[in-house]
Design brief:
Elements: H1 2-13, H2 15-34, H3 44-51, H4 60-67, H5 71-74, H6 83-98, H7 100-107, H8 110-142, H9 152-180, H10 185-196, H11 198-211, H12 215-237, E1 239-246, E2 249-251, E3 258-260, E4 264-270, H13 277-297, H14 307-312, H15 318-339, H16 342-351, E5 354-355, H17 363-396, H18 401-404, H19 409-432
Antiparallel strand pairs: 1-4, 1-5, 2-3
Length: 457
């Protein structure tokens, strides 16, 4: 505890770090405040009654509501939050793998290419927001939560402008946090939305266990959650270091020439290079059966009452979790193959006059890196698959659904990754001013300083 208090005092002593943290907290407060300002023309009481049991954290609308910190169900001006920007970023990233123009912007045109991509992403965000905003307002109208005294056309036009402005403003807040605050602004906005639902879910779980004389069970649940978080940290931070060596070269002139010792370094290949993307893609596919069931439900079709569809719409069922696990593993391999380019590593080593000891330059080096990547992706993909289905196991053991979602899945991975990145930036400020870091010894592995040629590629 004394170490923690000393660290907090050191953080407060650094004026720049203190101002950045306060600025970040202020921007996050503005974002959360906007999550409670209801769109004009919406009747909050009717909306609350309609959405109370209309979606759960397992379906698409419930997931969006979790990421927006409840703003989606509140019909707030930030109802769409930063999600259209995330969607646009994913689209641009995928285009970078397939379209030569975007590949050139990402890899060869440096800072000017990144600025051009950011501009395209912003424009695509506005377009996506207009489409999603129209669908969201139609959804609100279908719930009967629109004031009947307001013409529908005026409600639709005015609020779609407000929703678009809210998303653009959220994007601006994220960029300001990145520039003048601490941590990645966009990621922090998503994280604060996820964390916003945690206290209520935790209190509800505690009260539920207390009423059933299950205080020991609640303690065991917290211990299990702590263990899962620690395991997630290990996988997120885990890297496989491939040692490399730079060729010896002559230093000096004339009779003073002498061979310089070959410098050693390594290529850090992450065990989980794909991050949270495989879970997002797999979850999107798992939403399709529910969408089909809802589409046919109003027509009295047998398809809507099919046992298969009912099982695929129940995230605690065995078929759902088996298919979900397999999809996560497959998408992990696919996304890792898109992100990690062994040929690019081999070319970079050749240009830098470096080599992997015992491996010939060129194609043998690319094949070796590809083989290592494939081997380390297996445990990473299995772990992601297990993380994705852990909420179902937690719910099966009696944990309420809202709290069970924090035992794994997208929410847990995002929380861990963002917290680690933010702590790394705080530790960097402390170490630059010769203060102790956030941990007692060492640094936050894989975060505190970019080592290896992976940082240069």
């Amino acid at each position: 505890m004394k170490k923690l208090i000393t660290t907090l005092q050191n953080i407060w002593k650094i004026k720049e770090l203190r101002n950045r943290i306060l600025f970040t907290l202020g921007m996050l407060f503005v974002f959360r405040f906007g999550s409670y300002i209801v769109l004009p023309g919406v009747i909050p009481e009717v909306l609350d009654n309609a959405t109370q049991n209309n979606n759960s954290p397992n379906d698409l609308l419930g997931l969006i509501n979790v990421f927006t910190g409840g703003a989606f169900n509140n019909a707030a001006i930030f109802a769409l939050g930063i999600m259209p920007y995330i969607t646009a970023s994913i689209i641009i990233q995928l285009l970078g793998f397939a379209v030569p123009y975007f590949q050139r912007l990402q890899q060869k045109e440096g800072e000017s290419g990144r600025k051009k991509l950011n501009q395209i992403t912003r424009l695509l965000t506005v377009a996506i927001t207009l489409v999603q905003g129209g669908g969201y307002l139609t959804y609100i109208n279908s719930l009967g939560a629109v004031d009947p005294t307001i013409p529908l056309s005026i409600f639709w036009i005015s609020n779609i402008i407000i929703l678009s402005t809210g998303t653009v403003f959220s994007m601006w807040l994220g960029e300001r946090i990145t520039d003048r605050g601490i941590g990645n602004g966009i990621s922090l906005l998503i994280t604060i939305g996820i964390i916003a639902t945690l206290p209520q879910a935790l209190v509800f779980e505690f009260q539920s266990q207390l009423e059933n004389n299950g205080l020991i069970i609640f303690v065991l649940e917290m211990a299990a959650l702590f263990g899962i978080v620690m395991a997630t940290v290990l996988i997120v931070q885990g890297v496989r270091r491939i040692p490399i060596q730079f060729a010896k070269r002559m230093v000096g002139r004339g009779s003073n020439q002498m061979p310089a010792q070959g410098a050693r370094d390594y290529i850090p290949l992450k065990v989980n290079a794909s991050g949270v993307m495989p879970i997002i893609f797999a979850q999107a596919l798992m939403f399709l059966p529910a969408t089909v069931a809802q589409f046919f439900a109003g027509e009295g079709s047998d398809l809507a009452t099919s046992p298969v569809l009912r099982a695929l719409n129940d995230f605690t069922s065995a078929p759902y979790n088996i298919i979900y696990f397999i999809l996560v593993v497959l998408f992990t391999y696919v996304y890792t193959a898109l992100l990690v380019n062994p040929q690019q590593y081999a070319e970079y080593l050749k240009r830098q006059n470096a080599f992997i000891p015992g491996i010939k330059p060129g194609k043998p080096t690319a094949d070796f890196i590809d083989a290592v990547t494939t081997r380390i992706t297996l445990p990473g993909s299995i772990f992601l698959g297990i993380i994705s289905i852990l909420p179902a196991f937690a719910a099966g053991f009696g944990v309420n659904i809202a709290f069970a979602m924090f035992f794994g899945g997208t929410s847990l991975l995002i929380l861990v990754a963002v917290v680690l990145d933010t702590l790394q930036q705080i530790e960097s400020h402390l170490l630059m001013r010769r203060y102790d870091g956030l941990v007692k010894s060492g640094k936050i592995q894989g975060r505190s300083r970019m080592q290896g040629i992976g940082a240069n590629m």
